Amino acid sequence: MTSLTFFGATGQVTGSCYLLETSTHRILLECGLFQGTKETEKQNEADFPFDPARIDAVVLSHAHLDHCGRLPKLVKDGFKGTVFLTEASFPLLELMLNDAVHLQLRDTEWENKRRERAGKKLLEPLYELEDVEALLKLRKPIAYSEEKEILAGITVSFHEAGHILGSSIVRLRIKDHDEVKTLVFSGDLGNPNSPLLRDPTVLTEADVLLLESTYGDRDHKPLENTLDELRETLAEAAESGGNVIIPAFAVGRTQDLIYWLGKIQRQGGVPQQQIYLDSPMAINASEIYADNTHLFNIDDPEFTKIAPQGWQAWLNGLVYSQTPEESMAVNRIAGGAIIIAGSGMCNGGRIRHHLKYNLWRHNAHIIIPGFQAEGTLGRTIVDGKKKYLKILGSEINVAAKIHTLGALSAHADQSQLLKWASHFKEPKPRLYLIHGEKSATLSLQTCFNRTGWNANIPKVGEKITF
């Protein structure tokens, strides 16, 4: 008998992790970081609720940290199997994990200096550089739509999810005791309005469907309205002399933003002459995107023609800020610039410095272009309930104008999720809603139940059989 146990991104957005067990094999779907509040992130330090040494393989939908960020810990704790992923996820996984381990080691070192002075117990990092290196040796790429037997009786195929470069909908076919069952995992389902990536592939058959629900309780604003708001924000900031600060995920959101800014610039709607990409990881990710333009859609022939020349050819005035010294120089710019920096949820990275230097300015504009998890600084800014925020040890007055551009999200909204799932034929698969906060999953569950399709919301540790 085949079973599936839910260990992460269950009742919350982050920490994706699901254990598939047959009579002979154990496969892990995802192994992501928990992100958000300190209490949420404390879960990363806990032992895995299974023996990593007994996992035969990991199947990874894409390279965002909430889906892959605990893989080096899995290796550290004994995993020696294979990690199957798409071809474009292959280099992105290396980029993401190398950045994550260096930030982790740095933060642990700083915290331990403080603890040592206070006579407190020192911390250990979640994993070391050698754990990342060991994990990366276990990667095995598979092309989109290719069906590959990864273990005896188990095949996997990856299908375009349209979320970030290399993102996939995962289909697993499991033969156990002469019975074949199909599990489809949506991964992070992309927004069909993505300017760069192809729309999510439509699948029609499954016995069990795991469906993300990040935006299960709402629809995005119409894209054109959002782009109009972006144009108006840029014009208002130019007129008032303030900076435009954009926290963006290094992989996916940054590249979409550069595309839209370039498009609006061609229409005369970007008055700013200085546009800074202040994120070494986003710069490197953009280069990986540029190496994979064959995976882009061809909705914009002009962009398709220019894209191979690089992002700076598409967006005039784009400056890459690589070094700490260059980043500090950007901090000193009081107005007239667009500054894109990570992290996307404002919980770390260079964006916190830019918020510290701009959030108190009445003429500054903060554009939030993506989902902000509970407990993150970005979510606090979006909620707008605090007059003052503590950032990098300083109390900062929130005076800048805050703009939330949901239509630029890389996640499908409620209507798009329902439409994608509607293509599954009768008998409908058993449906489980994951990767969403409680309000989002409950709302999406109600929508499915109205159609007569029973949607389940699993609990952490819940096991199903099929």
Explain the overall architecture.
- Helices cover 32% and strands 22% of the residues.
- The mean pLDDT is 95.
- It folds into two domains: 3-218 and 410-465, Metallo-beta-lactamase, Chain A (4-Layer Sandwich); 223-408, Rossmann fold.
- 48% of the residues are buried.
- The longest helix has 30 residues, at 89-118.
- It has helices spanning 38-41, 65-68, 71-76, 89-118, 129-136, 223-240, 253-266, 280-290, 301-306, 311-314, 324-331, 351-358, 377-383, 414-421, 438-450, and strands spanning 3-8, 17-21, 26-29, 57-59, 82-86, 139-142, 148-151, 154-160, 168-176, 179-185, 208-212, 244-247, 274-278, 318-320, 337-341, 365-368, 388-391, 394-397, 401-404, 430-434, 455-456, 463-465.
- The chain has 466 residues and is α/β, with parallel strands linked by helices.
- A hairpin with a 2-residue loop joins β9 and β10.
Oligomer: single chain
Low-confidence regions: none
Number of individual domains: 2
Structural class, by secondary structure, is alpha/beta
Query: β content, as a range?
Result: 15-25%
Q: Helical amount among residues, as a percent range? A: 25-40%
State the distance separating the first and last CA atoms: 7 Å
- Bulk shape: globular
Q: What is CATH's topology name of the largest domain?
A: Metallo-beta-lactamase, Chain A
The pLDDT mean sits at 95
CATH homologous group name of the largest domain? Ribonuclease Z/Hydroxyacylglutathione hydrolase-like
- Radius of gyration, rounded? 22 Å
Strands across the major sheet, in which order?
6-5-4-3-2-1-22
CATH class of the largest domain: Alpha Beta
What is the total tally of β strands? Answer: 22
DSSP helical segment count: 15
Architecture of the largest domain, according to CATH? Answer: 4-Layer Sandwich
